[in-house]
Amino acid sequence: DQQVKQNSPSLSVQEGRISILNCDYTNSMFDYFLWYKKYPAEGPTFLISISSIKDKNEDGRFTVFLNKSAKHLSLHIVPSQPGDSAVYFCAARDAGNTGKLIFGQGTTLQVKP
Amino acid sequence: DTGVSQNPRHKITKRGQNVTFRCDPISEHNRLYWYRQTLGQGPEFLTYFQNEAQLEKSRLLSDRFSAERPKGSFSTLEIQRTEQGDSAMYLCASSTWTSATNEKLFFGSGTQLSVL
Question: From CA B116, how far away is CA B112, in angstroms rounded?
Answer without folding.
Answer: 13
